[in-house]
Automatic annotation (TrEMBL):
Membrane-protein topology: Multi-pass membrane protein
Pfam families according to UniProt: MFS_1
Protein name stated in the entry: Bcr/CflA family efflux transporter
Domain of life: Bacteria
Residue spans crossing the bilayer: 16-34, 54-73, 85-104, 110-131, 143-162, 174-194, 215-237, 257-276, 350-370, 376-395
Keywords from the named record: Cell inner membrane, Cell membrane, Membrane, Transmembrane, Transmembrane helix, Transport
A GO CC term attached to the entry: plasma membrane
Key word Transmembrane present: yes
GO molecular function, a single term: xenobiotic transmembrane transporter activity
GO biological process: xenobiotic detoxification by transmembrane export across the plasma membrane
Family: Belongs to the major facilitator superfamily. Bcr/CmlA family.
Length: 409
């Protein structure tokens, strides 16, 4: 554990929730950067003399370089301290966002997008490491759950916020908002997270970057949790990538109804998150994660039945809500179980988990999109395969370490 930069956290109280809010606010850089500008694609394409398809490529670019930023930032955070890497990453994100508000060509937009993603990756990878520095076991799962509860709000409000800014001030104001958001985070992180922390003293080197990643990847007992998280995230990513097709094109939902349908997923995620916090008082994170994954599989099985036998929105919606909403309980517990194996190299471990989740899930859904026709059955079938694999891994291979086991890493 990085004792020289440990945060002053108590299990309860205002400080606990304030720091959880700051960490959630840092992670929210990703959904804000991905979702706030979605309504502005046509206007951006016209202003930059390109196509909407080209503008949509910036989503994939962001996800890829966000993962790369995490892979680089994790080991750096272990070597040079959480505060330097986290604040530096937010600063890079802010500068890149400001540049994006001034670009006049598509190529400039893409270059700035790369740096925005790298900065976001450097900042967000530190969050899991910070939690692992301070907590383990149930307390880590409970804190991840608190962060998740706050974090859920970001993707819920981002598209609506982007629409408001677009209508009132134009598409460039969206990136100005992202700049201001990041700039506000910097002093809050500096003072709120690390203001009372002792000056960082570099830890003894544990080898090269490749050796650090090798040490994490060779912790084979932790790997099932990495793939559980990845496959479960692929379930949601597959839905998000086709949500407009599913609800607006297939079921004919209006533009007014569409965000309400998406909001139902968020509502259940919040409920599951709150239930998870209560359940952690009596059960370990591994057990709750399995329950949540079983519920997700029941939801996706219901989806398959609805699509095959009675494809109506009335039956489809609750099944999809269960499939996605249960992640409010599975994700924080899976994350806590994985990080439990690493009381050292926690930054590198967080990088592996974060980058794998984004990169592998994006690869799975992208390949499925390319190879399979866009139909409701195939979309749900991909979700089902990912959900079933996730549950099988949880039931057959995942085993939460004891304190003695985790202390060895």
């Amino acid at each position: 554990m990085n004792d020289t930069e440990e945060l002053s956290l108590q299990p309860t109280g205002k400080t606990y929730f304030f720091i959880a809010a700051l960490l959630a606010g840092t992670i929210a850089l990703a959904p804000f950067a991905l979702d706030t500008y979605l309504p502005a694609f046509p206007e951006m394409a016209q202003a930059l003399s390109t196509s909407v398809h080209d503008i949509s490529l910036t989503i994939g670019v962001y996800v890829f370089f966000l993962a790369l930023g995490q892979l680089v930032g994790g080991p750096l955070a272990d070597q040079f301290g959480r505060s330097r890497i986290m604040i530096g990453g937010v600063a890079v994100f802010a500068i890149a966002s400001m540049v994006m508000s001034y670009v006049t060509t598509f190529s400039d937009l893409m270059i700035a997008r790369v740096f925005q993603a790298l900065g976001g990756g450097l900042a967000t990878v530190c969050v899991s490491a910070i939690v692992r520095d301070r907590f383990s076991g149930k307390e880590a799962a409970r804190f991840f759950s608190t962060i998740g509860l706050i974090m859920i709000l970001a993707p819920a409000v981002a598209p609506s916020l982007g629409s408001i800014l677009l209508e009132m001030f134009g598409w460039r104001s969206i990136f100005i908002f992202l700049t201001v958001y990041a700039l506000v985070l910097i002093p809050l992180i500096s003072l709120g997270l690390f203001g009372n922390a002792p000056k960082f003293v570099p830890q003894p080197s544990t080898g090269s970057l490749l050796q650090k990643y090798k040490a994490v990847l060779q912790t084979t007992s932790a790997m099932p949790y990495l793939f559980i998280q990845t496959m479960s995230f692929a379930v949601m990513l597959s839905f998000l990538g086709h949500a407009s097709f599913i609800y607006q094109e297939h079921f004919g939902a209006s533009t007014t109804l569409f965000p309400i349908l998406l909001g139902c997923n968020v509502a259940l995620m919040i409920i599951m998150n709150l239930c998870n916090r209560v359940a952690l008082n009596k059960h370990d994170p591994d057990t709750i994660m399995r329950w949540a994954l079983i519920a997700q599989c029941l939801g996706v099985t219901a989806l398959l039945a609805v699509v095959l036998f009675s494809p109506s929105l009335t039956l489809f919606l609750p099944a999809m809500v269960i499939t996605i909403g249960t992640m409010g309980a599975s994700t924080p517990n899976c994350q806590a179980c994985f990080m439990e194996y690493f009381d050292t190299l926690s930054g590198t471990a967080a990088a592996v988990l974060g980058a794998s989740q984004f990169a592998l899930a994006a690869l799975i859904t992208s390949v499925a999109t390319i190879l399979l026709p866009e139909s409701l059955f195939y979309i749900v079938a991909v979700q089902a395969i990912c959900a079933y694999v996730s549950l099988i891994l949880a039931l057959r291979f995942a085993k939460m370490p004891s304190p003695a086991t985790s202390a060895n890493h």
